[in-house]
Amino acid sequence: MLVWIVFAAVGLLALFFRNPHFFRDVQFVRKKLKTRSRILKYMQTNYSILDRFIDAEKEHPHKPFILFGDETFTYRDAEELSNKAARVFLQSGLLKQGDTVALFLGNEPVFLWLWLGLVKIGCSAAFLNCNIRSKSLLHCFKCSGARTLVAAEELQDAVDEVLPALLEQQVTVFILTNRCQTADVKSFKDQMSHASSEPLSKDLRSHLTLRSPAAYIYTSGTTGFPKAAAISHAKLWQVACFLSLAGMNSDDVLYISLPLYHTTGFLGFASAIDRGITVALRSKFSVSQFWNDCRKYDVTVIQYIGEIMRYLCNTPKKPNDRSHKVRLAVGNGIRADVWRDFISRFGNVKIGEFYGATEGNFGLINYSGKIGAVGRDSFLYRRYFPHAVIRFDVETETPLRDSSGLCIEAAKGEPGLLVSEISLMAPFSGYMGDLQQSEKKRLHDVLRKGDLYFNTGDLLRIEEDNFIYFQDRVGDTFRWKGENVATTEVADVITMVDCIKEANVYGVEVPGHEGRAGMAAINLTEGLRFDSAAVFKHVENFLPAYARPRFLRIQSSLDVTGTFKHLKMKLVAEGFNPNQITDPLYFLDEKDKSYVPLTVDKLNLITSGQIKM
Questions:
Q1: Which of 243, 250, 550, 568 could bridge 271 with an S-S bond, Cβ 3.0-4.6 Å?
Q2: CB–CB of 420/326 below 8 Å?
Q3: Is 314 helix (H, G, I), strand (E, B) or coil?
Q4: Using CA atoms, how far apart are residues 190 and 317, in angstroms rounded to an integer?
């Protein structure tokens, strides 16, 4: 027996010296497997995040749950307010078990009361991005399958714009106000204030299983309008456990300034329930108030996207930069140089950079602290959570296959398409009401005949030391200001302007910024001149700020493939440099409320950071 122990020890030491991260790799896979086992147990008993919340309220009813401005809401407050919200829906007589309600509001506590209340009566919610308007708003509402819309008071103008279309579809509209002056729109808060706060019968949600939808969260995907990704109660548990895997514990205070309608923001809320902790919620990220909030609320864990970290690093240095209790930052998209600057300036904060997708069935997290990486590739992780990085043709946007029809794994250091196996343990639920786009995300015969994998739509690379790095996004989507921008949607909007005949939208890199800024190559309508002020006004009215093209390039004709698909690669590579491009170039100038000529001087101001993007 002793001999075998010695051999095992020698074997482990050999593995360690070949791979110094071996024990961390094993430890992380063990944590993931324990999480999986826990969720499987919950699936057998249909124990949901809501059930965990109810238990947490019983365990510590007077513990602060949500800190918002100068308001404090305990777990008991949240329980009672969500009961009231649930009763408003019940008393309206509009909902039946399994229905979906669309929520159109930003970060405020009532967002959480509404979602909890809906699940208590066996329903789900679709989280609408509060920046969308007009055609996009109608599209997102329609594909949610909802017949009821609840909107924030400050978004009533956006609702009024589409109200005729909603009423035509016999949609019931609530505004979160005590009194509403608009005909055919109901007020919600006054009804909520008069509703009972008594607990609701569990029978109202007895039909729910952990495979039932808990919410629909929108993603731009790779083409077209935003798509509603179904988030089951089981998937919500996976999301909720994520921050624990990153190192958050039951003593922490979590700061959420990211939108709750996004997976990242809602991830924080669900994780807080899982750990039974306090959340400091902010209506919107503020670079000037970020650290003040962290000090005010004794925050220990923050969530980020890359832009947030860059904004914080770009603020003037202060003597109290390290006067805070933050020990862990979890998010994605941070550049390596910003990562270094952040910990150098703000102290020894552990960065939990991760990779994941709203609709995806797979995730990575950098548990070893390697700057710039999103995770590690190990034999054990592939064994229990099958995935691969495969060779990919970025021009045709298709995986490369060998003579037998199977995909080819990318070599070390070679960017490739990340794919993850679809199985009972890692399902892909697809997009609500969009079978075609759902099927596009499924790849057949990847590593063996008959297998099925999820196409993440992202290019990653695995280096020789097995650290994994995010490379780029595939297809007609780029990321700017923490939001996915669908190029086809932007093109549809800007070609509504009379002077623009055709548009090819793409993302370009801007020095000092994460993601890509929007740029459009346009072809003018015959006989019409470019009306810069009119184009600016149009994109301001119909596109959220993050989706507005920052640069325009006027061309006599747009290059297309044999199948009439716009060619983007060359345009992306050429960027927006007037020294190298002879076509007229314009820049979105918010100060002048117009698209102004992009001169060499203005280019220098942009690349040096003197003109804010």
A1: 243
A2: no
A3: helix
A4: 46
Which string of b and e fits 230-269 if b means at least 16 CB within 10 Å? bbbbbbbbbbbbbbbbbebeeebbbbbbbbbbbbbbbbbb
DSSP-assigned letters across all residues of 97-162: TT-EEEEE--SSHHHHHHHHHHHHTT-EEEE--TT--HHHHHHHHHHHT-SEEEEEGGGHHHHHHH
What CA–CA distance (Å, rounded) separates 566 from 503? 9
Angle at 301 between CA 296 and CA 302, to 5 degrees: 85
Tell me the C-alpha distance between 257 and 301, whole Å: 12
Between the alpha carbon of residue 207 and those of residues 96, 102, 234, 237, the distances in Å are 12, 21, 15, 18
Helix, coil or strand: residue 23: helix
Q: For residues 283 and 110, is the Cβ–Cβ distance under 8 A?
A: no
Those residues whose C-beta lies under 8 Å from the C-beta of residue 393, and which sit 6 or more positions away, are 399, 400
- Residue 175 CA to residue 34 CA, distance in Å, equals 43
Question: Binning pLDDT at 50, 70 and 90, where does residue 12 land?
Answer: low
C-alpha–C-alpha distance, residues 373 and 461, integer Å:
10
Over residues 573-599, the pLDDT tens digits come to: 899 999 999 999 999 998 999 999 999
pLDDT tens-digit readout, 329-375 = 999 988 888 899 999 999 999 999 999 999 999 999 999 999 999 99
- For residue 46, give both structure tokens: 């249909």
Whether the Cβ atoms of residue 155 and residue 182 lie closer than 8 Å to each other? no
pTM across the whole model: 0.86
- Exposed / middle / buried, residue 446 (Cβ in 10 Å: 0-12, 13-18, 19+): buried
CB atoms within 10 A of CB 117: 27
Q: In 3D, which of 302, 401, 410, 419 has the Cα closest to residue 362?
A: 419
User: How many residues in the chain?
Assistant: 613
Secondary structure of 156-181 as H, E, C letters = HHHHHHHHHHHHHCCCEEEEECCCCC
**What is the distance between the alpha carbons of residues 437 and 250, in angstroms, rounded to a whole number?**
39
Give the CB-side neighbour count of residue 152, counting CA atoms within 13 A: 16
Q: How many CA atoms lie within 13 A of 167 on its CB side?
A: 11
Q: Give every CB contact of residue 281 below 8 A, 6+ residues apart in sequence.
A: 66, 67, 68, 107, 108, 109, 256
